[in-house]
Design a protein that fits this description.
Blueprint lengths: L15 H4 L3 H10 L8 E5 L8 H14 L4 E5 L6 H8 L7 E4 L5 H4 L5 E4 L11 H8 L4 E3 L5 H4 L7 E2 L5 H13 L1 H19 L1 H13 L1
Parallel strand pairs: 1-2, 1-4, 2-3, 4-5, 5-6
Helix pairs in contact: 3-4, 3-8, 9-10
């Protein structure tokens, strides 16, 4: 196939609910999950399956609790074929330090409960795409990532996220800790993350790219 016949068109997302969330819905969800007085809140939105790498996040959070006793871990989409192993790991944590949510329909609002978001698949090919990378940055949540799927194309260490090695709990802990301690970095990541998802993944960007492709 000729190279001039190949076009790259990124997925497009309706980002409005992530970039401009309803404050009343945020308040209601905080009350529903009883997180008003918890800080920092560490968020994970990922199925309980081995390749998502949650088994490396839990020990990192256990270590974080030593420095932040009021820290709270939220694990959403908490069901899957690795549930038994992960639930066993969670037993080492104080029962009041984490919450598992099987299903939350208002995902864009859920992101707003998080001070830090963590997504750490175990290798570069684990994610076919990885929509959560886009959602977290659109929601303005400082994030700790491994580079899998689409993240390899637009996530940059210390520009729009903190990037850590695969299968490394210590690095996840260090990444979370750094974000909690460095307000300037947090603000910079939020700003740059918002810019990159707006420029690459808005549905209007996708539609314009499709129009240009068909017109050519």
């Amino acid at each position: 196939m000729k190279k001039d016949k190949i076009y790259l068109v990124n997925h497009g997302f309706e980002l409005e609910s992530f970039t401009h969330p309803d404050q009343s819905l945020i308040k209601a969800m905080k009350a529903r999950y009883n997180v008003d007085d918890r800080c920092p809140v560490i968020g994970v939105i990922s199925r309980f399956t081995e390749w998502k790498g949650i088994q490396y996040i839990i020990p990192a959070f256990e270590k974080l609790l030593r420095n932040y006793p009021n820290a709270f871990l939220i694990l959403a989409n908490a069901n899957g074929d690795y549930s038994q192993q992960l639930n066993s790991q969670l037993k080492v944590l104080p029962s009041n330090s984490y919450l598992t949510i099987c299903f939350e329909k208002d995902i864009s609002i859920l992101y707003q409960l998080f001070n830090i978001f963590v997504h750490t698949p175990i290798d570069a090919e684990a994610e076919a795409f990885g929509q959560t990378y886009v959602e977290a940055l659109a929601a303005g949540v400082p994030s700790v990532f491994t580079l899998s799927g689409i993240a390899r194309e637009f996530i940059e260490h210390e520009k729009n996220a903190v990037v850590v090695p695969f299968k490394n709990s210590d690095s996840i802990f260090e990444g979370i800790s750094r974000l909690l301690e460095d307000e300037k970095l947090r603000n910079s990541l939020k700003s740059e993350g918002g810019k990159v998802v707006e420029s690459r993944f808005k549905v209007e960007v996708m539609m314009n790219a499709l129009y240009k492709m068909y017109e050519s």
